[in-house]
C-alpha cells in the first residue's frame, strides 16, 4: 500500500448522511474554482511580464527564485503529505498570497499606473486567492480538520529597488500560479479519494 | 652665505619657472647640486649652516639650520638679530621663530656654546630668503551622495591668518579604482578676504560612486603680492569620504536613477561572482572591468523609458542582478495657463502640461499652484484617468480679493518650470450652464422666462442671450443684462412674440465684462396665446364665362397675420346701401361663388373676413367690375428660369395696388392659377411660382387699382423657360416638277410648341432612298451637300425648292425652332420628274451613230465588193475549202457539222425545264419579254423552291434563214406590249413610307415589265439547249461584270426590271445571257426603252 493510499479520506465518515451531498458539492465547487483560477493565474503572469520590460517578457527569462519571507513554493514532498494536511498548507499559502498580491498591486500602480488591465488582474487575483483559501478552509472544517496555523505575514524588503519590486512581483505571481495549481490538484485528489 | 643666496636665487628662479610650467627636471638637478656643495662646506667648518626660514601666515618666520651631529649634541644656541630691538633667543634646538621682519637684510648671529668650544655664525636674512608655504587646511566636510554619484567638499580657507587679500589657487584631485587612476583634476581660484571663508566644491562622477573606491586630495597656493619671498604649494591633503553606500542588498548601481533622455550613463555590478553578460533593456552590452569585483557597462544617448523604467540586468553563472533606470524629460513650462471662475466661489486654473515627461508614478511631474497675494497654495492631485487632458487645480476664492497672482510650479526629478498668470477674477467668469428653464405666458405676444444659474454673482451683472426659435420667424437672439444674484433664480420677460406660435427658447449667460459664454441651457418649447387676425385675407374675383356669377377667391392668411387657427371666413357683397351675407365658410375652403350678372353693370363690393377663436380680421374688399381698357395689346415675355420678371411704368393714378394674375393658356375660362399683389408705388415684380413649368405657355394679366377698382393694364403671354418644340411640323409636297418641289406645312399646336416659334429649318439632300443623312445629325455636323433653308417668317407656310435635278430623289426634312431649341423634324423622300429633253437626246444619239456606222459599212462593202466576192463567194470555189466535199469524212466522224445537213423532221419534244429560284430572273430580266408558257416564279411563290415548266421546242437549227424564219413565226405568235415611257415616271410625290407601301401594293405604277411575249420562248430554248451542249458556259462570277449603262435612268422602285449592258454573250447569240444580278443592282436600267430591244430583235445579227 502506497503512502497516498494510506492517506485517503473517507468523506462519508467525516460528514453526516444529510450533509454529504452538500460537502460533495462544496468540494466540487472549490475544485472548479481552483481550476478556473489556475488559468487566471497563468494569464496574470503573462500580463505581468508584458509590463515589466525586457528581459521579463523574453522566453529565456528565468531569474532565480527570489525568497519571499513566509512563503515558499510547494515543497517537493507536498504530494506525499496526507490530503488534509496538504489542503491546510494550500489554504495558508493562498491567504498569504492574497496579501502579497495586494502589495504587488500597489507597487505596480506606481510603476505602471496606466496598465489598468494588469492592475485589475492583480486586484482580482488577491481577492480570488483569499476566496479560494477560505473555500478550502470551509472544506477542511466540513471534513473535521482544523485549518492550519496562520502563516506569518509575508515580509517584503523595505524600500526595495524597482528591479527587486519587479522580481518580487514576478515571484509572487509565480507562487500564486503554483499554489493555485497545487490546490486544484489536491482537491482533485480529495475528490478521487472521497467521492470516487 | 654666498652659496645660500645662490641657492635661494636658484630656488626662486626654479620656482618661477615651475610656476611658468618650466622643466622640473632642470630645477631639481640644480638644487641637489648646490645642496651637496653647501653641505660639504658646513661640515668642513663645523658650525651652524643652511639657515632656512619659512612662513605659513606671513606673520611668523620659522627658521632652522643645520648642524653636525657631533657639534649639535649638548649645544646651546643664542640667536640674535643684530641691530634689532628683538632680544636674543636662547635655545637648544636648531630652529627658532621670529616675527616677520622687514624687507631689508637682517644679520642673524647664532652663537653656539658646546663643550668643545664656542662659535659664532652670522647669516644675512631677508624676506626674500623666506618661503611661504600654506598651512594645512581645515576640511569641514567631504560627503558623497551616492544617489547622484556626487562628492561634496566643504573647507575653511583660513583667510583670517593672512593680513592681506591674496589670490589662492586650489587644486583638487579625485582618484578612483584600485590603481588610483585620476578621475578628475579640478583647479579654481579664490581670494582670501582677511577672514575665514568656507568654500564648496562638488563633482559628479561618471560612474556610480559605489562602483569603485574614490580618493580625494587637495592643496593650495597663496599668491601674496606683498610677499617677496618664495611662494610654494601646500602639501597634498588627503580627504576621507564620509558616508557609505548601501551595499547589502544592491549589487547594481546606480539604483532606480531618473535621468534626462539623451544622457550617457555608466552602470556597474559589484559582486563576488564573475559577471557573464549585461543587458540594457533588450540590448546586450559589452562589459567594462572596473576592478576585480566590479564591472560596468556604458550606455550612450539613453532613450525615453517605458513607464516601468528600463531594466539593466547583469547575469552571473548562478544569479541575476539588476537595476532600473527611468529616462525622461524635465517638465515643460505649463502652457495655456488659464484661471477662471464659474460661480465666483472658486477659481479653476487649467493648463496644458506640454511635452510628456515619460515619467509616471512617483516620478511624475508635481504641480503646485501658488497665489502670491494671499500666500496660499494648492497641490495638484494626479488624476490618472485624465492624463491626456488639460490639468486643472481649484483654488478657493478669498473674500474681498478680486486680483490673483498665480504661479504654477512644475517639478519632477529632472527639473522644474513655472508659469505665472495675473487675473482679475471678475473678468474671468465662465458661468455654469443655466438649468431649469421654464416659460410662463403673459399674453399673446409676451412670456416670462425663468432659469437657474448656480453661483454667487451678487457683485457683478450678468449678460445673457436668449435664443428664440420658431418655424415661422426662424432664429432670433436677444441680449439682456440682469443683475447678478446671490440666489440662483433669474427671470426675464420676453415680448414681441407672434401669437399662436410654437417657440423654442434657450439661454446662455456670461458676465457683463465678457469672458466666455456659458453653454446653452436645455431648450424649452412654448406655444404663445392666440390673437385677433391682424389683416384680412388676400382676395381676388373672377367672373364666370357666362357672366352670371362671380367667384371670389382668397388666400389663407399667413401665419403671422392669422394669429391663431382660422376657423372660418365671412363673405359678404353688396352695393353701397345694402350688404348681403353669404353663409359662414369653414376654413379649408378658400373661394365662394356669388350669383351676380355682369350685364347689370352693378358694381358690387365683395368683402371677406377671417375669424379665429379670439376675433375677426379686418375685411378685405374688392369690386365686382373692372375699369375697361380699350388699348390693350398682347405682349410676350420669357422668364428667367424660376420666374418671370415684369416691369411697368409708375402711374400716379394707381392708388391701391397692382395685381398680377396668371393661368395656363391652355386652360378654359375662368382662367386663374394664382395672383399676387404689389404696392401701388412698385414698378416691377418677379413672379415666382413653384408650379411653373418650363415649356408651358402662361397668360399673365397685370391689373392696376384705381379707387378700389381694378383695370386690366396688360395682357402678357409668356414662358418661364422656352423649350424646343416637341413635335415636328406636318408638311406635304404639293407639287413636283423636273427641277422644283413645292412643300406646304401646318402650324404646330401651342402646347407642343413649348416656346415662341422663331422659324423653320428646311433641309433637302439629293440621294437614294434610305440613304439620307439628314436626320440624326445635328445641324452643325450635317454634310455640306445637305442644303438648308432657314425660314424666319413664321407666317410662311409653303416653300418652293428650285434648281433641282430631274428624275432625282431628294430627302426633305422640316424642323421648327424656338429660342429653346430646334424641335424634331419630319422627313420625306421625293423624286423629281424626268427631263424630256434629255430623253430625246438619249434616243437620237445612238440612232445617229447606228446610221453612220451602217453608211460607212455600206460604202466600204461597195468599194471592196470584188475582194469580198473573191474571198467569200468566188465564182470557182476551192474544193479544199468546200465543206460539201468533206461529207463522208464528217459522216464517219459524226461531227456536229454533219447534223446541219440532216433533214430530220421537226419532231416536237417535251422538255422539262427545271429551274431553281435563282435562275428564274435570269431569263426574265434578260429578255424583258415574258413567255406565257414559260412561267417564271416571282418572289411571292416561295413555297415552291423549284418550278417545273414544260416547254415545247424544236431542236436548234443553226442556219440563219431557218432561225430567222423561226423568229418570224415566233414573232407572229408573240404579244408585245409597248409601254409609254411617260407613264412609267408619273410624279411620285409621296412620303417614303407611302412610296414603299404603294410599290408593294401594286396599285399604281409598276416599273416591272411583265410582258407576255411568246417569241422569247425561242431564246429560252436556245439558251437552255446551249447549256446542255458543250458550247457556251456562262461565267460564274457575274458580279465582276460591268453591267452598267453609264447614263441609264434608274427607277425608284427596286423591283423594276432592268436590262444589263455588257453582259457576256453566247457564241451563237448576241442575246445577253447573264442578267443583272438582282434588284439591288445600283445601275440597273429601266426596261421601258433600252437598246436591248434592238439586240433582241436581231439575235443573229
From TrEMBL, chain A:
InterPro entries: 4_helix_cytokine-like_core (IPR009079), PRF/CT (IPR010681). Keywords: Cytokine, Secreted. Residues 56-75 are annotated as: Disordered. GO terms for molecular function: cytokine activity. GO terms for cellular component: extracellular space. Its main location: secreted. SUPFAM superfamilies: 4-helical cytokines. Belongs to the IL-6 superfamily. This is Cardiotrophin-1. It comes from Monodelphis domestica.
TrEMBL record, chain B:
It is found in: Cell membrane. Keywords: Cell membrane, Disulfide bond, Glycoprotein, Membrane, Phosphoprotein, Receptor, Repeat, Signal, Transmembrane, Transmembrane helix. Residues 333-432, 433-531, 536-630 form the Fibronectin type-III domain. One of its GO terms (cellular component) is external side of plasma membrane. Its main location: membrane. Residues 1073-1101 are annotated as: Disordered. GO terms for biological process: cytokine-mediated signaling pathway; positive regulation of cell population proliferation. SUPFAM superfamilies: Fibronectin type III. InterPro entries: FN3_dom (IPR003961), FN3_sf (IPR036116), Ig-like_fold (IPR013783), LIF-R-like_Ig-like (IPR048497), LIFR_D2 (IPR040817), LIFR_N (IPR040901), Type-I_Cytokine_Rcpt (IPR050379). Residues 1083-1101 have a biased composition (Polar residues). It holds the Pfam family LIFR_D4. Heterodimer composed of LIFR and IL6ST. The heterodimer formed by LIFR and IL6ST interacts with the complex formed by CNTF and CNTFR. Belongs to the type I cytokine receptor family. Type 2 subfamily. Signal-transducing molecule. May have a common pathway with IL6ST. The soluble form inhibits the biological activity of LIF by blocking its binding to receptors on target cells. This is Leukemia inhibitory factor receptor. It comes from Monodelphis domestica (Gray short-tailed opossum). The lineage of its organism: Eukaryota, Metazoa, Chordata, Craniata, Vertebrata. The gene is LIFR.
